[in-house]
Amino acid sequence: MPFFKRKRRLNLALQGGGAHGAFTWGVLDRLLHDEELELGWVSGTSAGAVNAVAMASGLAIGGQGAAGRKEARETLRRVWEAVEAAGVSDLVRMNPFLWGLTKTSFSSMGGMLSPYDFNPMGFDPFRKLLEANIDFTKLRADTGSGVELLIAATDVGTGRARLFRRKEMSVEAVLASACLPQIHHAVEIEGRAYWDGGFSANPDVVTLAVESPVEDTLIVQLNALDRPTSPRTARDIAAQVNNITFNQPLLRDIDMIVAAQQEIGRGGWFSPRTGRLARLGRHRFHVVDAGRHTASLGADSKATPERNMLAQLFRAGRTEAHRWLERNGAHIGHRQTADLAQRYLARNDRARLGQPTAEPQPTPDDDAPLPAGNNI
């Protein structure tokens, strides 16, 4: 009787981070190389949404088999090559005043002018890029890949997250998820206006854990969680404000997850065995972290997709994913490999939840040099 090796099933939670999303591209490229890994649901925000939709589009064409994986990798490559080729937005290039601002601080643009002033027609070259490289029709009709999407955008009126599913996926949904209000007009969908999903869900991991039939989720963390020095310049202060703002939704979700896991761990008659809290508390989480690769990048690097930086981040993401699979791949489906409380929660929050307050120690190979080249 032939022996069939059981496939490992894994959800993905992809954080936003502008051009730093090239790290996530590298992670996905390596995961798609693993024939024993089957991808489940994908939650993504902003750059994470772009990566999620690009990968899902490729898988929709060929399924989870070799053809679909190859198409997914190719779609991701085409999207990021187009991002690199576009560089700074065509809108900015065509306006000498805005181009001058990018030479000093791209992030300061929104504080001086509204996008409704400097771009009254709402021109967005990113729309053309997405439409040229992602087949939204096939993506919505997909029934064979098994991949569900949760793409987060923020409702401008309420501040709440709106999650767009695969069957309602459109270029507008992705543009909404990546809509920075200082640069772009709000994206209108079904009479509601939306901004970047990072304000409300970056990404949504609670819905993913509660609703997905797959019980393991890999979080791809782009934004550094700790800055060792206090920012002094206007540019660095703005960058850190941005970093804090876009990390908060994930930290909120992690707080909820750790509390649920603690409640499940207590056991006893009153420990929940069914329902949302039980599913959340039993879900297994894993993390691939880009922090040591992105923390040292310049304040405006998220908005300037320079070729060498994208290539470096792609290689770093691929290498970190390889290391994670080597160390932890066998644990998928069996145990959680990320200590969420130690990694994400502050000392006082850990104490409140009854968790150890000692700071986490790096694993032995965390500081090992990255191998050269793309082939692992």
Structure description:
With 376 residues, this protein is of the alpha/beta class. Residues 90-110 and 362-376 have low confidence and may be disordered. Strands 1, 2, 3, 4, 5, 6, 7 and 8 form an eight-stranded mixed sheet that branches. 46% of the residues lie in helices and 13% in strands.
Summarize, please.
With 376 residues, the chain is an alpha/beta fold. The protein has 17 helices and eight strands.
Topology:
Blueprint lengths: L7 E7 L7 H11 L4 E9 L1 H16 L3 H21 L3 H4 L2 H9 L4 H4 L2 H4 L6 H9 L2 H6 L6 E8 L5 E4 L6 H7 L9 E3 L2 E5 L9 H6 L4 E6 L12 H33 L9 H7 L1 E6 L1 H4 L12 H22 L11 H5 L2 H6 L24
Parallel strand pairs: 1-2, 1-7, 2-3, 7-8
Antiparallel strand pairs: 3-4, 3-6, 5-6
Helix pairs in contact: 1-3, 1-15, 2-3, 3-8, 12-13
Keywords:
single chain; 376 residues; alpha/beta; 8-stranded mixed sheet; 17 helices; 8 strands; globular; disordered C terminus
Query: Secondary-structure element sequence?
Result: EHEHHHHHHHHEEHEEHEHHEHHHH
Average the pLDDT over all residues and give the rounded result.
Answer: 84
Distance between the termini: 34 Å
Q: Tell me how many strands there are.
A: 8
Note poorly predicted spans: 90-110, 362-376
Shape: globular
Strand content: 5-15%
Number of helices: 17
What is the multimeric organization of the chains shown? single chain
CA radius of gyration is 20 Å
Helix content: 40-55%
Characterize the biggest β-sheet.
8 strands, mixed
Please state the structural category.
Answer: alpha/beta
